[in-house]
Amino acid sequence: KKIVAALAALAISATALVAPALAQDKKFTIALIPGLTTDGFYITMRKGAQAAADALGVDLVFQGAPDFNPVTQVPVLDAVIAKKPDAILIAPTDKVQLVEPLRKANDAGIPVITVDTFIGSGVYQTGAGDADFPLSYIASDNILGGEIAARALATAIGDKGKVYVSNVKPGISTTDQREEGFKKEMAANHPGITVLETQFNDNDANKAASQLQAVFARNPDLVGVFGANLFSALGAANGVQQAGQTGTVKVVAFDAPTSIVDNINTGLVDVAIAQHPAEIGYFGVVSAYAHLTGQSIPVAIGTGFTIMDKANIADPNISKYLYSE
Ligand code: T6T
Fold this sequence. Notes:
The longest helix is centred in the N-terminal third of the chain and has 22 residues, at about 1-25. This protein has about 325 residues and is of the alpha/beta class. It is elongated. The protein contains eleven helices and 13 strands. Bound molecules: alpha-D-tagatopyranose.
């Protein structure tokens, strides 16, 4: 009798153990559409997403355009929608221009989560406006990031002098918010600093470098620049170097490609603000999976920053946040 009872108990617990696996017979496919494919930020995001996909037994499809542009991103999105993945994670390249293309996914019953950038106001599931349909927004706090950049630049220049923002183009939620946070902090707490007109470089580091030199030619008393994303920052730093102004014109960089290490060590870049793109990708996949398996998910998830400078860049707990290539 005892043996029969023990066997029965074993059978019940074995069923309990395998039951969740049986319920998940379907293998989900989650698509990740980055802002562009050739950017360490999104390459790192993909790694985080892949780690979560491996842990959950999900197929991850990574498909994107070679440049950060709605004109090239929308056809990629259309192609992904046609393949009917179970969910789409996307970094929309424009707050407005991606609304209608993404609505097509939503209308086709494909859940949408935006990562890094947002559409509309970025506040989803409110019933307000025409862009609240994504389920969640997973990203850095980009206004805060801009404020951090402003404080770092203010410290580097002794709280006075002329600076400007090297930015991508208007309409991108992340870089718009970084500029907003930067200007807000400067206006509120740094009266000795003049913020010159923003220079837009279309995500082209060469353009950002020539713009730096042109701004410096017009303003020989320029003391600082905030590069609001990876290419803006690398370009601005190259411009400072080409102008022979290393250390005189201070650079605060958003994002942390591996090349930033040299730039920090040589004093060309004072501070780099690393985002945590792997975290964004990981929680993107986990959130999509949670939704697909019947869980409710947070409407927004904020990920952190790591501030890198000469004093800490050699610390492995800091350098682990450098982006992959
Ligand atoms: O700064 C990141 C990302 O957050 C932004 O939306 C676009 O530019 C990057 O990918 C860096 O190149």
